Amino acid sequence: MKQMLTWAVVWLFALPMNAQQPRYLDPAVPMEQRIEDALARMTTHEKIQVIHAQSKFTSAGVPRLGIRQLNMDDGPHGVREELEWNTWNPARWTNDSIVAFPSLTCLAATWNRDLAALYGKAIGEEFAFRGKDLMLGPGVNVARTPLNGRAFEYMGEDPYLAGEMVVPYIRSVQAGGVGCCLKHFVLNDQETDRFSVNVNVSERAMREIYLRPFERAVKEAAVWSIMGSYNLWQNVHCSQNDALLNGILKREWGWDGALVSDWNAVTDTWQAATGGLDIEMGTEPRGKDSSSPDVYNFYYMAQPLEQKVQAGDVPMEVLDEKVRRVLRLIFRTSMNPRKIVGSQCSEQHYEACRRIGEEGITLLRNEKIKSAKGAAPLLPLEPTALRGRRILVVGENATRSLTCGGGSSELKPHREVSPLDALRSYFSRLRSDVTIDYAQGYASGAPIYDKVDAVPPAEQQRLNDEALAAARRADLIIYVGGLNKNHRQDCENGDREGYDLSFGQNQLIARLADIQPRIVVCLFGGNPYATSWLQKVAALVHCWYLGSESGTALVNVLTGQVNPSGRLPVTFARRLEDYPSMLFGTDGYPGTDRQVHYREDLFVGYRWFDLSAREKRAFLQRQGAASPAAPLQQPVFPFGFGLSYTTFRYGRPAITATADGWEVSVDVTNTGQRAGQETVQLYVGPRTPSADRPKKELKNFGKLRLQPGQTQTLRLALTPQDLAVWDETLHAWQTRPGQYTAYVCASAADIRGTVSFDCR
Ligand code: BGC
Fold first, then answer.
1. Measured between alpha carbons, how far is 648 from 238 in angstroms, rounded to an integer?
2. Which ligand 1 atom sits closest to the C-alpha of 230?
3. Nearest atom of ligand 1 to the alpha carbon of 183
4. Residue 10 — very low, low, confident or very high, per pLDDT cuts 50/70/90?
5. How far apart (Å, rounded) are the C-alpha atoms in residues 377 and 538?
6. Which residues are catalytic?
7. What is the pLDDT of residue 11?
8. Which long-range CB contacts under 8 A does 468-472 form with residues at least 24 apart?
9. What is the residue extent of each domain of the chain?
10. 711 burial class (0-12, 13-18, 19+ CB within 10 angstroms)?
């Protein structure tokens, strides 16, 4: 009785309070009604305040109404360190060290959708715990040139693979109430002239290749925000591009999220207001000190827009539409009652980091080496066979941090295990008497954003000589080099200077291999590179960037504790000029007079390398390219390629019709001695190829874990939509009826079986 009385009193007091609670604050009220309620209470000035930055990485809420601000941060491989409110200087906090996760190219190389979901969950928890509402990432710009300084932040050359990986990633981040801000919409495929280059691309390539992963993130993952890119399309900056943002993204795709500009990408109040931008960030107004606290009032969508709205030059409805989207984003994130607390540097996050790294590491070569016991592949390393031996580790990346540098994706990790440390601790755990020596071999200088830090040739020579002398005493060399996060390597705001590895590494690797053919070359990088020394080395392992657990993941693969299963999300061509984007002079890359033309059209990556030499020549002629100086070559390592410590046999594929389309099934058997994972890739193309369409395109894949001798049947679905192409006369997706071939492959160049089917 007493309890009932207490409840009645509580209820009586609560009733008037609830009744007074404005509808916009009540999460039980439908979202759209809350938005309208809040909007109706806001003054014009308050509306203006929420559509632009109030600091380097936040945009304002409405304090008077109890509407919270948006806390944003880069992205996309971990939470960036805190910066000062108004400057790019570190805030020097001591509690903002985080887990650095592998680069997104590494995630793409896992071809494992579950790991994409795991990545999203872990990184979302770190963002939530750091008090962030919006993660600036992930990125899905398509790799059309291996020189792109930011390729490591994206998911490779194939829109289907990028889409398959980004959808689960976004879903899991957003499930925790942290929003993703998908980058960089769109055609930001090079860093050279990124602020000013206009991209000319056919409607079809735009739709089928470059927009496709974004479209899937919108339609299948309902991404809450998107970042407009710096570059131009149809001669209008993409962050304020009406045709792109209002036309395609918002109207055609029905997207209800908020479009955030890239930092300092906005150039004009009218275009920004009417061109579909919702939140302006990072502007550096001309003649103003961009680190002064009142600079935000001079943003294009601050005072200048407020004046235009007051004067009736920009309709209030245009402003209201932006505010609705911003409020929606705030209610979804910073005011989401189900937003998680999250966690930082948990053991689960380190484990996720290590697992993604281990599955992304891609074994590209593993040759047999003769020993007393006969010939066997050099990897995995057998600790017992190395007893009493000397291992020489050579290369700067064996000790260098690969999480600092690179531009906005730079991180301050709580820990980062280097390959050298991981090797040493592995052998010391085994109490092995292996000796591990280290020689740096070359130097690259400090990672200075926007500048190249050149190392004097004499210093380079000294390091080279030291490594070569040490090599003469070694029984095994583990070379750990590749690219790094320096400017003009894998770094924002500048592309690579060439396709070769820098700092004299080609010569160094070749000379080391001449001295000791038992050499494992482990290279980091977000891009392919020339491998002139390939035939000399016994093994090549491509590591992408692996984050906090870098060394641990690599050593687990080298020593066979993990059987590598990474597959390339990009083609490794022999030479730069084998890439189709490089065959049209400066018009094709990086642009002439700030106009770049994607003349390779749909034939990006493997779509190009699938053509015969004759077909390539005919295509180039049609597109007006000069004949290539030397015959075009096939890739060294095709898209989808990667080795394992075991081998797999494919059965004959079969196809059956289903209610939604078709199902392709194939038996796969592990024919080797170790458990391992195989990625079966399903490509589809018209049975009679036509010149205007790639021969085959990736449409599904599956990853199987198999014990030695085990067989499993993999079933992969196909739908008529998977066969669709963009029709430039109808301006719509069209599935052409006809006969098609499904290719069951181990890589784009390794077809293990085909089946034909009809689409009516
Ligand atoms: C980059 C964005 C990044 C932003 C904020 C820009 O330079 O292009 O990707 O999110 O800076 O750091």
1. 46
2. 8
3. 9
4. very low
5. 8
6. 262
7. 47
8. 468/511, 468/512, 468/515, 470/392, 470/394, 470/437, 470/439, 471/392, 471/394, 471/439, 471/512, 471/515, 471/516, 472/515, 472/516
9. 360-558, 648-759
10. middle
Q: What is the DSSP string of 649-709?
A: EE---EEEE-SSSEEEEEEEEE-SSS-EEEEEEEEEEESS--TTS-S-EEEEEEEEEE-TT
Ligand 1, from 263, 410, 449, 493: best to mutate by most atoms within 8 Å of Cβ? 263
Mean pLDDT on 369-393: 93
Tokens in use for 87? 């400057």
Q: Using one digit for the tens of pLDDT, what is the confidence trace for 128-161?
A: 999 999 999 999 999 999 999 999 999 999 999 9
- Report, in this order, helix, strand and coil percent for the chain, each rounded to 5: 35, 20, 45
Please say if the pLDDT value at position 450 is more than 90: no
State yes or no: pLDDT of 16 exceeds 80.
no
Sheet holding 435-439, edge to edge: 362-366, 539-544, 519-524, 476-482, 390-394, 435-439
Distances (CA, A) of 193 to 66, 209, 493, 594, 633: 42, 22, 8, 7, 29
Ligand 1 center from residue 410 Cα (angstroms): 11
Q: What is the mean pLDDT of residues 397-412?
A: 97
Sheet holding 58-59, edge to edge: 58-59, 70-74, 134-136, 179-185, 225-228, 258-261
Tokens 């060290």 -> residue: 97
Angle formed by the axes of helices 316-332 and 31-41, nearest 10°: 130
Q: Which fold has domain 648-759?
A: Immunoglobulin-like (2.60.40)
What's the gap in Å between 336 CA and the centre of ligand 1?
Answer: 25
Q: Which atom of ligand 1 is nearest to the CA of 75?
A: 10
263 Cα–ligand 1 center, Å: 6
With the most atoms of ligand 1 within 8 angstroms of its CB, the residue from 492, 493, 495 to mutate is 492
Question: Omega before 75 cis (within 30°)?
Answer: yes
Q: Tell me which H or E stretch contains 758.
A: strand 750-759
Find the helix or strand (DSSP H, E) in which 163 lies.
helix 159-175
Closest atom of ligand 1 to CA, residue 229: 8
H or E stretch at 597: strand 595-597
For residue 264, the CA-to-ligand 1 centroid distance in Å is 9
Residue minimizing CA distance to atom 11 of ligand 1:
263
Which protein residue's CA is at the shortest distance from atom 3 of ligand 1? 408
| Correct CATH for 360-558 of 3.40.140.20, 3.40.50.1700, 3.40.50.1370, 2.120.10.10 | 3.40.50.1700
> Average pLDDT of 176-184?
98
- Integer Cα distance of 114 and 97 in angstroms: 26
- Which residue's CA is the nearest one to ligand 1's atom 4? 263
Ligand 1 centre and the CA of 288: distance in Å?
20
**Closest protein CA for atom 7 of ligand 1:** 263
Please give the pLDDT value at position 20.
77
Residue 168 three-state SS? helix
**Left if phi > 0, otherwise alpha if psi is -120 to 50, otherwise beta: which for 472?**
alpha
In one-letter notation, the amino acid at residue 436 is: I
Pocket of ligand 1 (CB under 6 A): 74-75, 136, 183, 262-263, 408
**Could you read off the pLDDT of 357-377 as tens digits, one per residue?**
999 999 999 999 998 788 999
**pLDDT band at residue 19 under the 50/70/90 scheme:** low
What pLDDT score does 14 carry? Answer: 46
Q: How confident is the model at residue 264 (pLDDT cuts 50, 70, 90)?
A: very high
Confidence of residue 536 (pLDDT cuts 50, 70, 90): very high
408 CA distance to ligand 1 middle (Å): 5
The protein residue whose alpha carbon is closest to atom 6 in ligand 1 is 263
Best residue among 79, 80, 134, 262 to mutate for probing ligand 1, ranked by most atoms within 8 Å of CB: 262
> In angstroms, how far is the first alpha carbon of the chain from the final one?
73
